[in-house]
Design brief:
This protein is mainly beta. It is 0% helix and 47% strand. The protein has strands spanning 3-11, 17-23, 29-35, 41-43, 51-56, 62-67, 75-80, 87-90, 96-102, 108-114, 120-126, 133-134, 143-148, 154-158, 165-170, 174-177, 187-194, 200-206, 209-215, 225-232, 247-253. A hairpin with a 5-residue loop joins strand 10 (108-114) and strand 11. The chain is elongated and about 95 Å long.
Length: 272
């Protein structure tokens, strides 16, 4: 259309793009856009205010935000897909939200925040057909999601033990501080992206400087070693049929887990 691409934020495997487009008619505006398979630019802006596309998946779906006021203090995350107009994903009760990433299922993640005097921010997930979901924080008042892979694992940042702490979120484990899972120099303060293999790109701070790590999951194939196991009492006597409580104590070590846990897997009766 009558416009100029000023920023590309995401690219698909077949080369389609999304980002921000300057339009000049009927007035100067910034709109979200995507490119089509033939290279044509599709303007995704449908208001007089600004919008931006932050991510595009291989189905051509786009996530981003659209301003709802001239000053930008009111804005809402959206999902755009073929055969439909932009879906307004709403907020978690505050004034602003933005979709930052989406996966092949159209799951959008990002941030939603409230304004002064009580500023707050939350990482969110918006699955097609479901309302926007609050993923919480690591104990502080602010958080934001940065990436989601096709398995649904989500990464981002949260206030918590440090001002900013990198996290990974899954439905199985909830929000996990990556500093508690990774032995690495410095503080992992933000997780930017996660791929299908579970590799995570994180920012770190160390000795007054910042840098980037790539984290690669290790498949733990070595079971823990039980170093001791005791019971009390260790003999049930006399054999008069009474039920007696027995306490089990076990200790174990593991090559990766600093604090492996043990559980009783079975009980046998030697006296039939």
């Amino acid at each position: 259309p009558d416009g100029q691409i000023v920023r590309v934020n995401s690219i698909t495997n077949d080369g389609r793009l999304t980002g921000m487009l300057h339009t000049f008619t009927p007035s100067f505006q910034v709109h979200a856009f995507r490119t089509l398979a033939d290279g044509a630019i599709q303007d995704l802006g449908d208001s007089v205010y600004a919008s931006a596309g932050w991510a595009i998946n291989d189905a051509g779906e786009v996530s981003g935000y659209e301003a709802r006021s001239l000053d930008g203090n009111t804005q809402s995350a959206f999902r755009f897909a073929d055969g439909m107009t932009k879906t307004d994903l709403g907020t978690l009760g505050g004034a602003r939200s933005s979709g930052v990433s989406l996966n092949h299922d159209g799951v959008v993640v990002g941030w939603s925040e409230g304004m002064m005097p009580t500023e707050w921010s939350r990482a969110f997930r918006a699955r097609p057909g479901f309302p926007i979901e609050d993923l919480g924080t690591l104990g502080g008042s602010v958080a934001g999601a940065e990436g989601v892979n096709d398995a649904g694992a989500i990464v981002g940042w949260s206030s918590g033990p440090f001002w900013m702490t990198a996290f990974v979120y899954t439905d199985a484990d909830g929000m996990i501080d990556l500093n508690s899972r990774v032995v690495a120099p410095g503080i992992l303060y933000d997780a930017y992206a996660i791929n299908a293999a579970g590799q995570i790109v994180v920012g770190y701070q160390l000795a007054g400087r910042t840098g980037t790590y790539r984290l690669t999951p290790i498949v733990d194939q070595e079971p823990p070693v039980i170093t001791s196991a005791t019971v009390y009492p260790d003999v049930l006597a006399p054999p008069d049929g009474r039920m007696i409580p027995v306490t089990v104590h076990a200790s174990a070590t593991d090559n990766l887990d600093a604090a492996p846990t043990c559980q009783i897997a079975g009980v046998t009766n030697s006296e039939a």
